[in-house]
Amino acid sequence: MSRIAVVHPDLQMKGGAEDVCMQVIEALQVSHNVTLFTLIPPNIAELNHYFDTNVRDLSVSLPPYPIIEFSQWVGNRAVKFQAGLLAQFAKRNRNDFDLMISTKNELALDTDSVEYIHHPQYAVDDPGLTDGSLRRRAYDTLCRRLANVNQTKLMSNMLLANSDWTANAFYEAYGIRPNTVYPPVHTARFTPLPWEEREPGFLTIGRIGPSKRILKNIDIITQLRERGHNVHLHIIGPTTDGEYCERVKRRSTKLDFIHFEGAVEYEILTDLITKHRYGLHGRPYEHFGIVVAEMAAGGMIPFAPDSGGQREILNENADLLYASPADAINKIDAVLGDSVRIMKLRDELSSTSQRFNRDRFKNEIRDIITDRISS
Fold it and tell me: Do 172 and 248 have their domain in common?
């Protein structure tokens, strides 16, 4: 039984990267001694319920309290800086482990490691800093020095990416192309209803913040109704951005066809997916887009921006990928009015369950870790 450290800043964020982390721990805990290095004390029981996982008997290693307090204070701001703090803490303990795994981007952990890339975090500007290029460059420089990530260190690690798009972006940043291992999608939980029994509505799923462009999604649904489509929208996800979330709530209360759900129980989310026909994703350049894959696996027809890893999920189908809100309105309008096209799209998306399911992901991770430890 090998000693493995899984390094992840904050599982309580409950996003796609956190889903990957929980799946990795669950996949490895039977055969290995797993310790989680993190900045925020995790509520494992809550996370198991949220992600429908079975992580148990997990050792958790936390940095000194001032770092924990700082991380709790900044929340989802300064994420690269926080990741650098965690990397430094993990590196100080690297001799206690046979292997380290970063489940949230490149950390160059100065030891034998496997690093799962959602996006090359130290090679791009932090989107949270938009008030001046000088401040942004200074922040990026500070983060890179703290993390001490460079091409030489990364070349000695096993690098994985959540999509071909991310792998290509990482290659452009560092000259190294990770192997693509698509993230786990809980496809087995869906028992889709027949199309005619579903509500003619849309779901938007994900953290309720500016990057998801939820206010634009509301505009799209409003315009579709003005074109004569009797559709509605459910907005579902954790509320990590207070100001933006309040704007979404205020807008939702003014429109009776917009339903603000916030974070919901796992069973409720599954039920909503199986009972609705369409999904609307708003974030461009999504690194993969687990929720898009979940929508497709649940029998929905999702629409998403024509960029990022979500193109791979939707088979680069031009009917489902839009370049702007206006383009989304036109394309969705065309699909909603064509029953033959709807059935064709559903058939084309039916392979999602096989391509992205959890068992496939766990088996790939186990094989990679076994090969890495034995090499």
Answer: no
Shared domain check, 245 and 161 = no
Helices (H) and strands (E) in the chain, counts: 16, 13
Counting every residue written for the chain, the total comes to 375
pLDDT band per the 50, 70, 90 thresholds, residue 130: very low
For 153-159, the CB contacts below 8 A with 24+ separation are 153/108, 153/110, 154/106, 154/108, 154/115, 157/108, 157/109, 157/112, 157/113, 157/114, 157/115, 158/113, 158/114, 158/115, 158/368, 158/372, 159/106, 159/114, 159/115, 159/117
Let me know the angle formed at the C-alpha of 194 by 204 and 225, rounded to the nearest 5 degrees: 45
Domain of residue 329: give its range: 187-356
**What SS3 state is found at 20?**
helix
Regarding whether 193 and 168 lie in a shared domain, the answer is no
CA dihedral 170, 134, 128, 6 (to 10 degrees): 50
Averaged pLDDT for residues 297-312? 95
The H or E element containing residue 59 is strand 59-61
pLDDT at residue 124, as a whole number = 59
- What is the rounded distance in angstroms from the CA atom of residue 144 to the CA atom of residue 149? 6
233-245 b/e (C-beta count within 10 Å ≥ 16 → b):
bbbbbbbbbeebb
Domain count, the chain: 2
**C-alpha span between 360 and 18 (Å, rounded):** 18
CATH at residue 170: 3.40.50.2000
196 plus 139 within the same structural domain: no
Identify whether residues 128 and 232 lie together within a single domain: no
Is 210 found in the same domain as 160? no
Same domain membership, residue 100 and residue 247: no
Asked if 368 and 289 sit in the same domain, the reply is no
d(CA 311, CA 286): 9
Residues 6+ apart with CB under 8 A from 346: 195, 299, 301
Tell me the pLDDT band of 41, cut-offs 50, 70 and 90. very high
- Strands 258-262 and 179-180 come out as unpaired
Three-class secondary structure assignment of 323-352:
CCHHHHHHHHHHHHCCHHHHHHHHHHHCCH
Neighbours of 285 (CB within 10 A): 14
Question: Is the pLDDT reported for residue 125 higher than 80?
Answer: no
N-to-C CA span, the chain: 15
